[in-house]
């Protein structure tokens, strides 16, 4: 029985590695999008401060991209939250309804 517990722990540790790798990858994606937004916001500010009509017009697609990027970050965090909750339930041996073992009463 001790060997079975050791294998369960090892499987859990491997699962933890996968979970953390997923988190890490998602956080890298989020940071990339946020870095892009920082650059876009700087461009928008520069265009706005110039008061040149053509530069001001260039802000429209830049702001649209910023808005899209915000949606992307929100979606990534939502997926991350769902994945974390699923991993936590799985690790604790509970089904989606919070019951142990996935059996229905």
Using brief descriptors, characterize the structure shown:
single chain; 105 residues; mainly alpha; 84% helix; 0% strand; rod-shaped; nucleus; EARLY_FLOWERING_4_dom; Protein EARLY FLOWERING 4 domain-containing protein
Describe how the helices and strands are arranged.
Elements lengths: L1 H49 L2 H39 L14
Helix pairs in contact: 1-2
Quick recap:
The chain is an all-alpha fold and about 100 residues long. The chain contains two helices and no strands. It is about 85% helix and about 0% strand.
Question: Helix/strand/pairing class, anyone?
Answer: mainly alpha
**Helical element count?**
2
Cα-to-Cα separation, first versus last residue: 29 Å
- Strand-and-helix sequence, N→C? HH
Q: Averaged pLDDT, please?
A: 82
Using only C-alpha atoms, the radius of gyration works out to 22 Å
Number of strands: 0
The best one-word shape is rod-shaped
The low-pLDDT segments are 5-9
The helix content is: over 70%
Strand content: under 5%
Largest sheet, strands/sense/barrel: none
Explain the overall architecture.
It is built from two helices and no strands. The model is unreliable at 5-9 (pLDDT under 50). Helix content is 84%, strand content 0%.
């Amino acid at each position: 029985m001790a060997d079975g517990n050791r294998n369960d722990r090892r499987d859990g540790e491997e699962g933890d590695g996968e979970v953390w790798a997923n988190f890490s990858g998602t956080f890298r994606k989020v940071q990339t999008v946020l870095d892009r937004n920082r650059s876009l916001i700087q461009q928008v500010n520069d265009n706005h401060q110039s008061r040149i009509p053509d530069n001001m017009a260039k802000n429209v697609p830049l702001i649209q991209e910023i808005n899209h990027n915000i949606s992307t970050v929100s979606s990534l965090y939502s997926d991350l939250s769902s994945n974390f909750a699923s991993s936590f339930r799985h690790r604790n041996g509970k089904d989606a309804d919070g019951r142990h073992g996935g059996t229905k009463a």
